């Protein structure tokens, strides 16, 4: 089949070890022709480019800035991206008849480009639903259903509904996501909605004792403490004020150390907290390269996941998989609507508590400190291979085309 993958993110290489490249490489290696449309934001100073790489075809469309910019420019760039994608596909891929279009959220703003290819080629469409927008923005106060912000909400809600309508299949990250989509969108055919989780090419990224020692010494991380690491976005969805309350609650825990790695709109809150409090068992680090980050995670003991307690939609953060590859168990501190905590508990490789009470978090930390973590590693890695490999996701998509 000729497969078209659309993303507004930056797509560096088909050979990169990350979720989407891993999945698309699986399609390519199974004999399918893979075409990828991604972006070159204006700040990169690059024009639209169409290149072949190891049998995959990459079209990077020059667009306005979506990241590292102000809200006005981001808004204008978001509104223009549909027409820019459609124009680039017409120009560079007019000779290709696509059989399947795969695309993901975020964002939901590629509707007309998807619709154009679907109608032109008679292609089937598969949505990889990674977030539920705009409701997630409403949950944490970034958008409202009334007033002036309500106009924006209704615009994006209409886009969301249309995206579901033009999608022949909708692959959700978990069963809670499947249930949410069906319950809140009765017009969607429930038989078209299924679980197709985050996936990757499974690689053992655990580290040896010697490497663990070297990494901890390099970054000034104690060797004699259980290290709890959070890595990823530091924004509104993570509930940074609550994370700070949790750190304060555990300030006197002498046998643990908290490491936070990442960046985002709320990074400054944690930076200010670190400077003002000089908490001895806490360290904040800016974003690392992927290789250094993977090694750092492997040198820690427990991975942390945080989600704001106000969420009504069931988020399922992909950072879970990076912890699982490193063979470190996971503590999820989230709202009660996501099923990521139940997944971790049922899988037997971690713990969960609600993100509305830092006492519960502290109690989990105490419990973990009394647990032999080595017994969880093999259980966790097997669960990863059985449930989140690209092989599994590939078969879920392809069963519709046999």
Explain the layout of strands and helices:
Elements: E1 2-6, H1 19-29, E2 33-41, E3 49-53, E4 56-63, H2 71-92, E5 100-105, H3 111-121, E6 124-129, H4 135-139, H5 147-166, E7 169-172, H6 175-184, E8 193-195, H7 209-219, E9 226-233, H8 240-249, E10 256-263, H9 267-277, E11 282-285, H10 290-298, E12 302-306, H11 319-325, E13 330-334, H12 340-347, E14 350-354, H13 358-369, H14 377-387, H15 390-398
Parallel strand pairs: 1-2, 1-5, 2-4, 5-6, 6-7, 7-8, 9-10, 9-12, 10-11, 12-13, 13-14
Antiparallel strand pairs: 3-4
Concise synopsis of the structure shown:
This protein has 402 residues and is α/β, with parallel strands linked by helices. The chain has 15 helices and 14 strands.
What features would you describe in this structure?
- The protein folds into two domains: 2-196, Rossmann fold; 209-386, 3-Layer(aba) Sandwich (Rossmann fold).
- 42% of the residues lie in helices and 20% in strands.
- The chain contains 15 helices and 14 strands.
- The longest helix is centred in the N-terminal third of the chain and has 22 residues, at 71-92.
- The N and C termini lie close together (12 Å).
């Amino acid at each position: 089949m000729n497969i078209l993958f659309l993303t507004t993110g930056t797509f560096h290489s088909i050979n990169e070890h990350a979720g989407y490249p891993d999945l698309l490489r699986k399609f390519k290696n199974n004999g399918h022709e893979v075409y990828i449309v991604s972006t070159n934001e204006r700040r990169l100073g690059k024009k639209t480019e169409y290149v072949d790489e190891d049998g995959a075809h990459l079209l990077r469309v020059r667009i306005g800035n979506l990241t590292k910019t102000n809200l006005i420019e981001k808004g204008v760039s978001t509104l223009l991206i549909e027409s820019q994608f459609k124009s680039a596909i017409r120009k560079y891929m007019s000779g290709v008849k696509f059989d399947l279009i795969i695309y993901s959220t975020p964002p939901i703003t590629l509707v007309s480009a998807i619709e154009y290819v679907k109608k032109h080629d008679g292609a089937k469409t598969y949505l990889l639903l990674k977030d539920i927008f705009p409701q997630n923005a409403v949950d944490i106060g970034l958008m409202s259903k009334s007033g002036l912000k309500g106009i924006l909400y209704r615009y994006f809600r209409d886009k969301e509904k249309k995206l579901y309508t033009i999608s022949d299949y909708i692959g959700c990250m978990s069963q809670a996501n499947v249930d949410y989509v069906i319950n809140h969108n009765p017009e969607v055919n429930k038989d078209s909605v299924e679980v197709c989780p985050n996936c990757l090419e499974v690689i053992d990224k655990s580290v040896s004792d010697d490497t663990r020692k070297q990494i901890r010494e390099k970054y000034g991380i104690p060797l004699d403490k259980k290290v709890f690491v959070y890595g990823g976005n530091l924004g509104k969805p993570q509930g940074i004020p609550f994370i700070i309350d949790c750190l304060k609650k555990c300030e006197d825990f002498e046998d643990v150390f908290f490491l936070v790695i990442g960046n985002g709109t709320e990074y400054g809150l944690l930076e200010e907290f670190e400077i003002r409090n000089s908490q001895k068992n806490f360290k904040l680090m800016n974003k690392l390269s992927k290789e250094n980050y993977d090694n750092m995670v492997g040198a820690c003991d427990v991975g942390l996941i945080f989600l704001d307690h106000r969420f009504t939609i069931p988020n399922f953060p992909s950072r879970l998989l990076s912890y699982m590859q490193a063979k470190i168990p996971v503590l999820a501190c989230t709202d009660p609507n996501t099923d990521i905590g139940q997944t971790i508990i049922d899988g037997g490789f971690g713990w969960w508590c609600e993100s509305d009470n830092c006492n519960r978090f502290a109690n989990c930390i105490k419990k973990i400190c009394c647990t032999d973590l080595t017994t969880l590693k093999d259980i966790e890695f097997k669960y990863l291979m059985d449930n989140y490999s690209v092989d599994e996701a590939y078969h879920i998509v392809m069963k519709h085309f046999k």
